[in-house]
Design brief:
The structure holds two protein chains of two kinds. By secondary structure, chain A is of the alpha/beta class. Chain A contains eleven helices and 23 strands. In chain A, strands 1, 2, 3, 5, 7 and 11 form a six-stranded mixed sheet that branches. A six-stranded mixed sheet of chain A has the order 12-10-14-19-16-17. Chain A has a five-stranded mixed sheet with strand order 13-21-20-15-18. Chain A is elongated and about 100 Å long. By secondary structure, chain B is mainly alpha-helical. A three-stranded antiparallel sheet of chain B has the order 1-4-7, with no helix packed on it. Chain B has a two-stranded antiparallel ribbon with strand order 2-3. Classes of the chains: A alpha/beta, B mainly alpha. Chains A and B meet through β2, α2 and α3 of A and α6 and α8 of B.
C-alpha cells in the first residue's frame, strides 16, 4: 500500500513537473521578447543610419512605430577651438563639437554603436552612454586607441534624454575637455510636435590662465580637482549661442529644449530670463513638472523643457548661480521675433524719479507750499523748503546736492558769479536750457543743460528761491508770477555768454 | 588579454630566434646608456599603496628607434616588411605612412622616430639587437628624470612639459629624435612619441578605469587598479591609459619604441 501510494505520488509529481516544466519553458521563450519592459522584440526593417547633428540642432523625429536596428557612427576628434574671444583650448570631442553630436533613437531600438578614434588623436577614448543598460554604459566595450574603432550593440530599453560621456582615465579630465553629449530615446509614440527643438548643454572648464586670458589655454588639473572653474559655458564656447548664433524662434510658437549638463563638477540652475517653463521633464525622466522658473540639472544629467513664446524679444538662458552667467560665460540668447503683445507685456510705461521713503516728509513741504500759494499766504521759507525737495529730485543729479556741480562738466550753483550777476535770468536758464561755452567762477564749461519746462511755475519759483538762499548765494525770492512771465515770452535761444 | 597575447607572443619568439641569429653584431653604432640600479615610487605602486619598486641596472637606448633604423631592419628581415608581416602580429595600419614596404614617404626623414609599429614588431626589432622592450617600471624610472635630476616628478615644470605635449594633436609631422638629454643621458622620453613597454597589457585591470572599488584586484593583479589618489600622478597615468587601450597588434601614428638590454659595455 505504502509502495502504491509512493508510486502514485511519484506519478503525480512527474506529471506536475512535466506540466510546470513546459509552462516554464513556454514562459521563458516568451520572456525573451516581452517580459523586459521597453523591449519590443527583435529589430525590424532595414538597418537605419542614425542622423547625428551638431549643437544646437536636434535630429528629426524617428517617426517610426516599430523597433529598428540603428547604426550610430561617432568619431572622436581632438581639436583646438575658441573657448572665448581670442582664447583657444584643446577640446576632445565626440563628432568635432562640444557638446558632441546629438543622437536620437526610439525606445526598443537595437543600437549598433561604432566609436572611431581619429588617427590624429593623442589619447585613447571610450564612451559611457547613460541610456545603455549594461556594465559601464558601453565604456569597457568601446575603449579605443588612436586610429582605431570599436563596436558594441545595446537595446534602448528606457525612454528619456540621457547624457553620454568619455570614461577614460582620468575621467574628469576627459569630461572637462568637452567629451559629453546627449542621446534621446523617444517614447514609442514619439514626442508631441513642437515648432523648435534645441540642443543646449552646459559644462565647466578649467584653464591655467584667468577668465578671458588670451591665447591657447591649457587644462588645469588643480582647479578641476578644487572645483574652481574658469569658464562655465553653454555649448562649449563663450558666445556660442549669442549674437548671430542666437537661437531663433517666432512669437506664438512652442519651443522644446534638450538641456544637458556635462559637468564635470557643477550642478546647473537652468533658467530662461523672461520665460516660465510650461513643462519640464526634470532629470530627463518621465514625470512632468509644470510652471517651473528654474530647473536643477545635475552634472551627468539632462532635462527636457518646453515653453510657448508670447512676447518678442531676447530671452537669456543662464545658469542662475548667477556669477557663472556674468563672470564665467554661462549665457545664451533665444531671440523671439514677432508682433508685440501689449496685453501680456507692455514694455516701459513710465520712467521717472523715485525718491523713496526719505522724501516723504519733505514732499509734505511741497504740498504745503502748493496750498499756501493757492491761498496767497506763501512765505519765502515755505518756498525754500519745497524748493529743496524739488531740487533734490530734478537738479542735484548734475549740480549735486551741495550745489558744487562737477568740475569742468556741470557748473556750480554754490557762490556762483553767474547767479549773483543777474538773479532773474536764471528763470530763463531753467525754462529754456543753456548750451555752449560758459565761464562760472573763473572756470570754463562747455556742455548742454536741457530745458526744464516740464516743471510748473510754482516748482521753478520754489527751486530757484532755494538756490538763491543756499551755499553763499545772494538770497531773495523768485515768484511764480515772474516765472509765468518768462515762460510767456517768445523763446530766444539762450546762448551762453562771458 | 594576458592569455591571448601570450600564446601569440610565443609564436613570435620562434620567429625572432631566426632573426637574432642573423644580425647580432651589425648594430655597434647604436647608443645605449647605462641606467644604474635604483628605487622607484611608481605611480602604480603609490596608487596600490605598496612600497617603492627596486629597479636593477640595465642599459637603455638613448633615443627612440628611428625610421632609418627600422627600414634597415625590415630590409634584412623580410618577414617584418609591410604586407608580409601577418595580421596576427601587426594590424592594418602597420607602417602605413611609408611609400612602400621598403621606402619612406616623401616628407618623412630617416631620423624621425618610427611609428605605426606593433608590439610584436617592436619586440622583434629589439631582439635583433640583443635587447628587449623595457618594462613599464624601467621606462617610468628613466622618464622621471629631467635634465638635472633623476627624479623630477615633484617639479611642476616637469609635469607641465608632459601635459603640453598631451594637448597637441598628432597631425603635424614628428620632429627628429634628439634634443636635450635627461640626467641619465637619455633623450625624448617625453614630448615626441608614445612608447611600447614590454608589459603594456598588465597595467590596468579593467579597461573601464572607474572600476576600482574591488580590493581583490590588487591582490591578483598587483599594480592593477589605478585611481587618482595623488593628483600629481595623472600626467603619467594618462600614458598608462594609452598603453592599456592597445592590443599587441595595434599600431598608431604616434606610438614608437626604444629597447633596453642588460648592462654590459655601458657600465660606467
Amino acid at each position: 500500500m505504502k509502495r502504491t501510494i509512493k508510486t502514485f505520488g511519484q506519478v503525480v509529481t512527474a506529471v506536475l513537473v512535466l506540466v510546470l516544466g513546459s509552462l516554464i519553458a513556454m514562459e521563458s521563450a516568451v520572456a525573451a521578447s516581452t517580459k523586459v519592459p521597453g523591449d519590443f522584440g527583435p529589430p525590424r526593417g532595414k538597418p537605419i543610419q542614425a542622423v547625428l547633428t551638431s549643437p544646437p540642432n536636434v535630429p528629426p523625429a524617428t517617426n517610426r512605430n516599430y523597433p529598428a536596428k540603428v547604426i550610430v557612427e561617432l568619431e572622436v576628434i581632438e581639436k583646438e577651438m575658441p573657448i572665448s574671444e581670442g582664447v583657444s583650448y584643446m577640446f576632445w570631442t565626440f563628432g568635432g563639437t562640444v557638446p558632441g553630436s546629438f543622437i536620437r533613437v526610439r525606445q526598443g531600438d537595437t543600437v549598433e554603436f561604432h566609436l572611431k578614434n581619429h588617427p590624429s588623436s593623442k589619447m585613447p577614448h571610450n564612451i559611457d552612454l547613460h541610456g545603455v543598460t549594461g556594465p559601464g554604459g558601453g565604456a569597457a566595450s568601446s575603449f579605443t586607441a588612436p586610429g582605431h574603432r570599436s563596436q558594441f550593440t545595446f537595446k534602448a530599453l528606457n525612454e528619456g534624454i540621457y547624457v553620454y560621456h568619455c570614461a577614460t582615465a582620468p575621467v574628469g579630465m576627459h569630461v572637462a575637455n568637452g567629451m559629453y553629449g546627449l542621446i534621446l530615446v523617444e517614447p514609442p509614440g514619439g514626442l508631441p510636435k513642437v515648432d523648435h527643438e534645441f540642443y543646449v548643454m552646459q559644462g565647466d572648464f578649467y584653464t591655467t590662465g584667468k577668465y578671458r586670458e588670451k591665447g591657447l589655454q591649457p587644462f588645469d588639473m588643480e582647479k578641476a580637482i578644487d572645483e574652481r572653474p574658469t569658464y562655465v559655458l553653454f555649448n562649449g564656447a563663450e558666445g556660442s549661442l549669442t549674437g548671430d548664433k542666437a537661437l531663433l524662434a517666432k512669437t506664438n510658437q512652442n519651443v522644446r529644449m534638450f538641456v544637458g549638463n556635462g559637468g564635470p563638477n557643477l550642478v546647473s540652475s537652468f533658467h530662461v530670463i523672461g520665460e516660465i517653463f510650461d513643462k519640464v521633464s526634470y532629470e530627463g525622466g518621465s514625470n512632468v513638472q509644470r510652471n517651473v522658473q528654474t530647473t536643477l540639472i545635475p552634472a551627468g544629467g539632462a532635462a527636457m523643457v518646453e515653453f510657448h513664446t508670447e512676447v518678442p524679444g531676447s530671452y537669456v538662458l543662464v545658469d542662475h548661480s548667477i556669477f557663472r552667467a556674468f563672470n564665467k560665460g554661462a549665457l545664451a540668447i533665444l531671440k523671439v521675433d514677432g508682433p508685440e503683445n501689449k496685453a501680456i507685456y507692455s514694455g516701459k510705461e513710465l520712467d521717472s524719479v523715485y525718491l523713496g521713503d526719505r522724501a516723504e516728509p519733505n514732499l509734505n513741504a511741497v504740498t504745503a507750499a502748493t496750498k499756501a500759494a493757492a491761498s496767497g499766504t506763501l512765505t519765502q521759507q515755505e518756498q525754500i523748503d519745497a524748493g529743496k525737495v524739488l531740487f533734490t529730485g530734478t537738479c542735484s543729479v548734475c549740480h549735486q546736492a551741495n550745489g558744487e556741480g562737477l568740475a569742468s562738466v556741470f557748473p556750480p550753483l554754490a557762490k556762483s558769479d553767474y547767479i549773483a550777476k543777474d538773479v532773474k535770468r536764471i528763470i530763463g536758464t531753467v525754462l529754456h536750457g543753456l548750451t555752449g561755452k560758459l565761464t562760472v567762477n573763473g572756470k570754463e564749461y562747455n556742455s548742454v543743460m536741457p530745458p526744464m519746462n516740464q516743471l510748473n511755475d510754482d516748482e521753478v519759483a520754489n527751486i530757484l528761491s532755494y538756490v538763491l538762499n543756499s551755499w553763499g548765494n545772494p538770497g531773495g525770492r523768485i515768484t511764480a508770477d515772474e516765472v509765468k512771465k518768462v515762460r510767456a515770452q517768445p523763446v530766444t535761444a539762450q546762448k551762453a555768454e562771458h | 588579454m594576458f592569455v591571448s597575447s601570450g600564446s601569440v607572443r610565443h609564436a613570435a619568439w620562434m620567429m625572432l630566434l631566426i632573426g637574432t641569429m642573423q644580425a647580432l653584431s651589425t648594430h655597434a653604432a647604436v647608443e645605449y646608456v647605462a641606467i644604474p640600479p635604483g628605487k622607484l615610487a611608481s605611480v602604480l605602486a603609490s596608487d596600490a599603496d605598496t612600497g617603492p619598486a627596486v629597479i636593477p641596472a640595465f642599459a637603455m637606448r638613448a633615443m627612440p628607434v628611428t625610421n632609418g633604423e627600422y627600414l634597415a631592419f625590415v630590409k634584412s628581415h623580410r618577414e617584418w616588411q609591410r604586407g608580409k608581416a601577418p595580421s596576427s602580429f601587426a594590424d592594418g595600419t602597420y607602417l602605413h605612412s611609408w611609400r612602400s614596404s621598403l621606402a619612406l614617404n616623401v616628407g618623412m626623414s630617416a631620423d624621425q622616430p618610427v611609428t605605426n609599429v606593433s608590439w610584436f614588431a617592436a619586440e622583434a626589432f629589439c631582439e635583433n639587437e640583443g635587447a628587449r622592450l623595457p618594462t613599464w617600471l624601467e621606462w617610468e624610472h628613466v622618464a622621471a628624470a629631467d635634465e638635472k635630476v633623476f627624479d623630477a616628478r615633484s617639479n611642476p615644470a616637469w609635469r607641465a612639459r608632459i601635459l603640453s605635449w598631451y594637448s597637441q594633436t598628432s597631425s603635424a609631422p614628428l620632429a627628429p629624435v634628439g634634443g636635450e638629454a635627461n640626467a641619465y643621458g637619455v633623450r625624448n622620453m617625453h614630448g615626441l612619441v608614445w612608447e611600447w613597454v614590454d608589459d603594456f597589457n598588465a597595467l590596468l585591470v579593467s579597461v573601464d578605469s572607474r572600476n576600482q572599488g574591488d580590493p581583490d584586484k590588487l591582490q591578483f593583479c598587483g599594480a592593477g587598479a589605478i585611481s587618482l589618489k595623488d593628483r600629481d600622478n595623472y600626467a603619467v597615468l594618462m600614458r598608462i591609459a594609452l598603453l592599456s587601450s592597445l592590443s599587441a597588434t595595434s599600431t598608431t601614428n604616434n606610438l614608437g619604441f626604444r629597447c633596453v638590454r642588460p648592462m654590459t659595455a655601458e657600465k660606467k
